[in-house]
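Hey, weird one. I pasted the C2H2-type domain-containing protein sequence into the form twice and got a warning about non-standard characters only the second time. First submission, copied straight from the form history:
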Amino acid sequence: MPVSCLICFKVFSTQSSVNRHLKNVHKQEKNNIISYPYDHFNSKCLEENCGTSFRFISELRCHLETVHNKTMNKENIFFASEEEFNPWFHQICDNNNLEYVRHKQKDQPITYFNCNRSGTYKSNIEIRKRAIKSQGSCKIGHKCTSQNILNQNSTGQYCAQYYKTHYGHTIEVQHIHLSKETRINIATKLASGVSVSR
């Protein structure tokens, strides 16, 4: 499969040729990021005239920073335990109207929290019991760059790598799942006469 340079988009037959090109022409060290045609993977670059996709969100973030000069805000935060991480993470989500989906592989020290807007809506009309919501699916058809990666190191300390920048969508409260308690609270306020705008 042909491989293209992420800076000038020149096409090469192998990744080693791209690495040599990056070092000699663009004065960059080895870069193992391989770009693919737009429909190949779900980590898609949405920039005009780019048309590339990547295997991993981390590769998309690197591409957006190096090729398109996008800022991908990242913060590393350390915690003594997962119990210390949880309230911080829930506060970040609540204060910013965000929601993340947790992914953890069995027997691995890393937990991924991906933006809930990432992915593609898959309709299965035969087994669907409810109609789709009026605002539509929260899925954006590709992966968002916002992610929180919680990793436990050898000393037992936890490091959260928080990638704050969302890509390909805006933050919209209608795509956040509300807890039963929050829904009841809102319904009570509406029933008591509080306006929707408040």
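That's the output from the first submission. The warning seems to come from a hidden character in my clipboard, not from the data itself. The mean pLDDT is 81.
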